[in-house]
Amino acid sequence: MSGLVVRGLRRRFGGVAAVDGVDLDVPAGAVTALIGPNGAGKTTLFHCVTGLDAADAGTVTLAGRALTGPPHARARAGLAWTFQRIELFTGLTVAENAQVGAENRRGSRSWAKLVGLPGPWRVEGRAVDSVLERLGLAALADVPAGTLPTGTMRLVELARALAAEPVALLLDEPASGLDDHQIERLARVLRELAVGGLAILLVEHDMRFVRGVADFAHLMIAGRVEAAGRPDEVLAAPLAQEIYVGEV
Ligand SMILES: Nc1ncnc2c1ncn2[C@@H]1O[C@H](COP(=O)(O)OP(=O)(O)OP(=O)(O)O)[C@@H](O)[C@H]1O
Ligand SMILES: [Mg+2]
Predict the structure, then answer these.
(1) What predicted TM-score, i.e. pTM, was given to this entire model?
(2) Which is nearest to 170 in space by CA: 10, 46, 85?
(3) Structural domain tally of the chain?
(4) Which residues have C-beta atoms less than 6 Å from ligand 1?
(5) How far is the CA of 175 from the centre of ligand 2 (A)?
(6) For the segment 157-183, what is each residue's pLDDT rounded down to a tens digit?
(7) Centre of ligand 1 from the C-alpha of residue 22, in Å
(8) Which of 9, 31, 157, 223 could form a Cys-Cys staple with 82, CB 3.0–4.6 A?
């Protein structure tokens, strides 16, 4: 499969099986939502896929190739992500944060820049500009990221991820803290990116957003995927109705 494929993933913390044998397909050209209650294991799974945490068992492949090693190796292989707890360089500007992402591009040669060779960073400059434009951040390019409201910081994290021109994108609660206008823009951008062929995995608690943007949903409870299918089907299941009382 051309997207991201997770098989048999396990991660235990002491007596807690945070991820308890998960299979997950995140196809290219679609938005796949991973939903479930607090503590279900969504972020742990996410960290095992990015290499920020080490799984006890299981495999992850991206475009048919094994995805292994530390986070920077996985980024070079075409994976990009944003965090549940925002992690930006707060002292750097919005454009500089996005530039950091561009330098993570597959095949990008930062050494060429260091030794003064003409090279790909000029292209990266354009990539940064177009990403900022796309996310409505162009006017904030020179503003220090740390001075921005939460929702806007989330969009800057997304800009950094997209500047790397990934083939798969993992987002942990990207709509949290965004205003209605920003959520609408985020939904539009994610749909465009999916149509453009990106494989997108979205961890999200906002079910209205999930319904609006996701092609598929997986419901995770206590480390296991208990239901999967179209968002409407998954959210109509009794298990989901219990968790999202009054929301779905
Ligand atoms: N570093 C850790 N050490 C010990 N236990 C952990 C660690 N990280 C997560 N856990 C436990 O693993 C389980 C899954 O947590 P995780 O953060 O993955 O859930 P989540 O689905 O992302 O929840 P939320 O929706 O609240 O973000 C929880 O029981 C949590 O307490
Ligand atoms: Mg989480």
Answers:
(1) 0.91
(2) 46
(3) 2
(4) 13, 16, 18, 36, 38-44, 84
(5) 13
(6) 999 999 999 999 999 999 998 999 999
(7) 15
(8) 157
